[in-house]
């Protein structure tokens, strides 16, 4: 799916800003037919929850309404007029002047609504977006809604981050020509020093397609005619971790000697490959150093914020990280574009977090109910999941920063039915993108003996909390079990192994000379213990700590103002461990460290 971009044939106007806002119980019947009642306004892009002080709004379960007037530029006569929502969490129904014009399910992927037949250039219309934040056993991520004895609806879910909702990413009104470029797919290869760019263009309306590839100075380095083909770039500059280089693919659709549509896609020439137990970028072994992150900040919730994007990536650079995982959902596309431009390596994760009822059974992972059954995660869940994967790959397939798809976080891969549930999703991802390796983050209670799906994937990514949820305060035992656990995977499979989660909740300012959980010293010691063990395994390809920064969670007695496993606080101040990580990660580049390093 092409991101709206202004080009000589396309225009856009941002609808970000303040919108009228109301929750369903206060909105009256069919609120899309009139101005919303009440004085509330909500900022877009941002989650609505923390903007308001009223707990009935913050923890509202169900529909809320956003509304604003929109002016359609008068020059858009003859063009198609579209609305682009970069994300509405989790479900949207869109109305133009009271008429239902579109809908979408899935809170972290974009969608367009075609308004051409419903609005008039030069006139305004009232745009209402109904937003539903409910998670059920048929949504991705899943959850359940129940009613308390007092008639209050409560949302439960199987992940710890707070269920922020609303319109957390940008909204645009944009125009495209009637005959237009619908989609562009690019993959890249290398032959010696020549870069090969395979492209495919889909169009609406007939016409002649031409493509031209320009380097960063704007000089044309290759061109072709036709809706698919391979562009050869002699002495190609590669997109490399820490040293991005982007070409621009200029796509034009011609009709009767005229350019009717024009679109450009930034392209990075690079290869990604898993060979034996190595993860190769451009043929070189790559070692992931970084974090699982969240889109999370005070007041904005999961709202995309360019200032946080810049600051977070500055901190990644400061700490000598080279990568992150978009745990536990696809991030705003601006994040990937930034990573493309700055050479940051991304593991792009779906929103399939919590497909695991075992977590309700505590750390033993004993499911209270089977995860995969007609009543729990079923065919409808799988269909929603497949649709989500289609939308994710459609959006992110051309980003050079994305080197691997992480199809799920901590699914019940140890339970009966897991293989039947996940194998078709793996097949789908491979069909949609044959070029990128696949992984999923393996939950602590799935082990070599009981996991049923790991052979379907290319990289083994482990989430492990030795020294925290188990052997808390006993780093000695934690080390023994961690070593044994990693050895078991390394011995059983000829695949790269990495750690996608490990860490300890840490209250900044808490100190101890002993191994005392929650102290800054304990976080540092726990990480050092892990690193000692990782460095013993040549098959290890990366370490991504949980988490980059502290983040908001739902209420619960095991969280104090949110999850505190951040290396940085929620407002991005370093805890003591940050300085030690910085030293460790500076000592080796993007290559695997060894026990002696
Ligand atoms: C996990 C989850 C992550 C949690 C983390 C924790 O295994 O993948 O979403 O935040 O543990 O801190 O409990």
UniProtKB/TrEMBL annotation:
Gene3D superfamilies: Galactose-binding domain-like, Glycosidases, Immunoglobulins. It comes from Brachybacterium saurashtrense. GO terms for biological process: carbohydrate metabolic process; glucuronoside catabolic process. Residues 180-270 form the Glycoside hydrolase family 2 immunoglobulin-like beta-sandwich domain. Coiled coil: none annotated. The keyword Hydrolase applies. Residues 14-177 form the Glycosyl hydrolases family 2 sugar binding domain. Residues 272-587 form the Glycoside hydrolase family 2 catalytic domain. This is Beta-glucuronidase. Keywords: Glycosidase, Hydrolase. Its EC number is 3.2.1.31. One of its GO terms (molecular function) is beta-glucuronidase activity. It comes from the Bacteria. SUPFAM superfamilies: (Trans)glycosidases (SSF51445), beta-Galactosidase/glucuronidase domain (SSF49303), Galactose-binding domain-like (SSF49785). Belongs to the glycosyl hydrolase 2 family. PROSITE patterns: GLYCOSYL_HYDROL_F2_1.
């Amino acid at each position: 799916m092409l991101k709206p971009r202004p080009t000589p044939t396309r225009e856009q106007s941002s609808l970000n800003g303040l919108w009228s806002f109301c929750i369903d119980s206060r909105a009256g019947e069919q609120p899309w037919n009139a101005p919303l009642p009440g004085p509330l306004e909500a900022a877009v892009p941002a989650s609505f929850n923390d903007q308001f002080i009223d707990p009935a709004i913050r923890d509202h379960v169900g529909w809320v309404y956003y509304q604003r007037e929109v002016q359609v530029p008068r020059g858009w006569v003859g063009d198609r007029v579209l609305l682009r929502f970069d994300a509405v969490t989790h479900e949207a129904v869109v109305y133009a002047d009271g008429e239902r014009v579109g809908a979408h399910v899935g809170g972290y992927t974009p969608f367009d609504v075609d308004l051409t037949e419903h609005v008039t250039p030069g006139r305004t219309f009232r745009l209402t977006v109904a937003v539903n934040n409910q998670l059920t056993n048929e949504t991705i991520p899943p959850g359940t809604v129940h009613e308390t004895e007092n008639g209050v609806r409560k949302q439960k879910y199987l992940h710890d981050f707070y269920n922020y909702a609303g319109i957390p990413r940008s909204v645009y009104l944009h125009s495209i020509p009637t005959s237009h470029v619908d989609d562009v797919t690019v993959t890249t290869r290398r032959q010696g020093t020549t870069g090969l760019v395979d492209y495919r263009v889909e169009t609406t309306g007939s016409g002649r397609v031409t493509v031209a590839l320009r380097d960063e100075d704007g000089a044309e380095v290759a061109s072709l005619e036709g809706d698919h083909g391979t562009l050869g770039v002699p002495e190609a500059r590669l997109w490399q971790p820490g040293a991005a280089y982007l070409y621009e693919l200029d796509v034009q659709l011609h009709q009767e000697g005229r350019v009717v549509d024009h679109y450009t896609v930034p392209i990075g020439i690079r290869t990604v490959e898993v060979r034996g137990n190595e993860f190769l970028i451009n043929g070189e072994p790559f070692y992931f150093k970084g974090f699982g992150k969240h889109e999370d900040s005070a007041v904005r919730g999961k709202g995309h914020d360019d200032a946080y994007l810049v600051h977070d990536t500055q901190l990644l650079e400061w700490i000598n990280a080279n990568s992150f995982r978009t745990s536990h959902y696809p991030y705003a596309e601006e994040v990937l574009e930034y990573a493309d431009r700055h050479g940051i390596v991304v593991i792009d994760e779906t929103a399939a977090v919590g497909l695991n009822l075992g977590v309700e059974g505590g750390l033993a992972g004993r499911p209270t109910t089977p995860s995969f059954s007609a009543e729990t995660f079923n065919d409808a869940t799988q269909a929603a999941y497949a649709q989500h994967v289609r939308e994710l790959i459609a959006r992110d397939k051309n980003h050079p920063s994305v080197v691997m798809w992480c199809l799920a976080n901590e699914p019940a891969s140890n339970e009966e039915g897991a293989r039947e549930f996940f194998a078709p999703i793996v097949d789908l991802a491979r069909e949609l993108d044959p070029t990128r390796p696949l992984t999923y983050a393996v939950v602590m209670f799935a082990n070599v003996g009981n996991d049923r799906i790991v052979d379907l994937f290319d990289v083994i990514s482990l989430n492990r909390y030795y020294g925290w949820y188990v052997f808390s305060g006993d780093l000695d035992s934690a080390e023994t079990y961690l070593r044994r656990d990693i050895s078991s995977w390394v011995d059983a499979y000829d695949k790269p192994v990495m750690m996608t989660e490990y860490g300890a909740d840490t209250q900044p300012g808490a100190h101890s000379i002993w191994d005392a959980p929650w102290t800054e010293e304990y976080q540092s010691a726990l990480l050092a213990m892990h690193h000692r063990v990782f460095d013993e395994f040549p098959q290890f390809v990366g370490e991504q700590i949980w988490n980059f920064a502290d983040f908001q969670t739902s209420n619960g007695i095991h969280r104090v103002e949110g999850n505190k496993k951040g290396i940085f606080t929620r407002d991005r101040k370093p805890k003591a461990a940050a300085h030690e990580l910085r030293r460790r990660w500076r000592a080796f580049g993007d290559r695997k460290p060894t026990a002696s390093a």
